[in-house]
Amino acid sequence: MFEGQSVSLSCEEDNSSAGWTLRRNTTKETRTQCGDGWGNPAGSSCNISYMVPLDSGVYWCESREGATSNSITITVTGGPVILQSPVLPVMEGEDLTLTCKTKTSSNLPAGFYKDGSFIRTEPAGHMTIHHVSRSDEGLYKCLISSVGESPPSWVSVTEKPKTTSPPTSSPPAPETTSAPPPASDPLHLVIRLVIHLVVFCPYCISTFIMVSLYRHRATGNDLPISVVMTPPRQAEEGLDEDYDVITAVTTEHHF
Hints:
It comes from Perca fluviatilis (European perch). Keywords: Disulfide bond, Membrane, Signal, Transmembrane, Transmembrane helix. One of its GO terms (cellular component) is external side of plasma membrane. By secondary structure, this protein is mainly beta. It is 14% helix and 36% strand. Among the domains are: 7-74, Immunoglobulin-like, CATH 2.60.40; 81-158, Immunoglobulins (Immunoglobulin-like), CATH 2.60.40.10. Strand 6 and strand 7 form a beta hairpin. The longest helix is centred in the last third of the chain and has 36 residues, at 186-221. It is elongated, with a radius of gyration of 60 Å.
């Protein structure tokens, strides 16, 4: 805004303004409230009758509990050209209109710049950016030939709030019935029987062989002995009544 203009700022919340105070930060002051060397408080409002470049800064409302509102930036210039821009942040998807004007006219051709880079020239001094996004946020200024350049003005873009759709009721899941267990397959039973026999038969055969070997070894160790008696014989050398009994012991081996 131009030097010498007046401004009135007010704090309101849900049609109630009780307990809110206007504060600002400038190049020389920090968190000073209305009436503390600047402005005239009127309830929750603050009136500044004559703006000067030193009034340029960030303004916001603050409650007794410490809650704060969105901040706005006010730029006061003593030059011939100003750039009018929204004082509140622009929401994504909305249109942004910037106006380059002098103290006497707002319809002169003007060139617009963002962050020091030239955008384009508008013949009537108005530039509109449709469907802004976060990339459009930045520092803007304008230039009117043969008149002058405006001070830079910061434009903020806020994210569009996300809308949540109500939950949709899903149809109930169809009932599932458990199928009866399949009947036993005869072929499957035969295969299981064969497997058991294949596993069990070698065990039986090996057990039988071990028992047979053990019995054969026990029989071979007991050697039977038999005694055979031979009848007495008389000696040819005249021994009529005496005789010797010869006992023959034979050993019988069984294989």
